[in-house]
Design brief:
By secondary structure, this protein is α+β, with helices and mostly antiparallel strands. It has nine helices and eight strands. Strand 1 and strand 2 form a beta hairpin. Helix 2 runs antiparallel to helix 4.
């Protein structure tokens, strides 16, 4: 098996002229909807416990002393509050699901390796109205790691975090706060999230990054390797000959 065949990321993905494009899986959408649903349920439970606490005069007095606007909830009662919250939650979930579906379906990732006459890079495209396209060259990457949260493990997906080095002033930082601020300014993180083969993608990027430590392919070497300067060339030889002739004429 050749190197080009080994570096194909599985599962198979559509091939385009700029590399191999892939998208987040549908489970990435389900993960986002589930997180929003759990958050809404927790808010509903908190409201229910709050109204149960309102039945205690001491608790009610303390709550109103902390936040006076909560008196509105006491006036309208649990039934009206529950109806308003459930109606708003349903509208929010439907609208949010449509927006999230469109947003996730328009996400594009591409990883280009050592092939052709272009530098290897990672390409991401995100957004609906404001579309953001990023090209991250491998030479700017300082760290690659994967992340799997509770919901990621539940749906069998993960995220590849790509840290890149930003501009540096070259001045030695002093103090903890200065060092932290400089670190935040000098590093950026690009996410390739919602994919099942996140570990394979991480290994692929690391393997391609190691190409910088070895000799690049011929097509890349002829373009990016600077030619070595020869000390003794035809020009220097002619200069030495002229100096020799001048010295011989002076001796005569």
């Amino acid at each position: 098996m050749t190197y080009d065949e080994e570096r194909v990321i599985r599962p198979p993905i559509d091939q385009v002229s700029s590399g191999r494009v892939f998208h987040p899986t549908n489970t990435f959408l389900y993960k986002k909807i589930l997180k929003v649903g759990i958050l809404l349920v927790l808010i509903w439970m908190a409201l229910r416990l709050l109204f149960i606490g309102f039945t205690d005069p001491t608790f009610l007095e303390i709550i109103l002393a902390i936040s006076q606007p909560l008196e509105i909830l006491v006036l309208i009662g649990w039934e009206t509050t529950n109806l308003i919250f459930v109606s708003a939650a349903v509208v929010f979930v439907i609208a949010g699901s449509i927006y999230t579906f469109i947003y996730v379906s328009r996400i594009e990732y591409s990883v280009l390796g050592w092939s052709g006459d272009v530098m290897p890079e990672i390409y991401t495209r995100k957004g609906i109205i404001n579309i953001t396209k990023k090209h991250v060259p491998f030479r700017t990457i300082v760290n690659v790691r994967t992340r799997k949260g509770i919901f990621d493990r539940l749906f069998g997906i993960g995220t590849v975090l790509i840290e890149t080095a930003g501009g540096s002033t070259g001045v030695q930082a002093t103090g903890i706060v200065t060092i932290l601020l400089q670190r935040l300014r000098s590093e950026a993180v690009e996410k390739v999230e919602g994919i099942k083969f996140h570990e394979e993608l991480r290994d692929f990027i690391l393997r391609e990054m190691r190409m910088f430590g070895r000799k690049a392919p011929t097509s890349m070497a002829t373009r990016f390797v600077r030619p070595k300067r020869r000390i003794f060339s035809r020009i220097t030889l002619e200069a030495f000959l002229e100096i020799r002739d001048i010295l011989r004429e002076r001796e005569k």
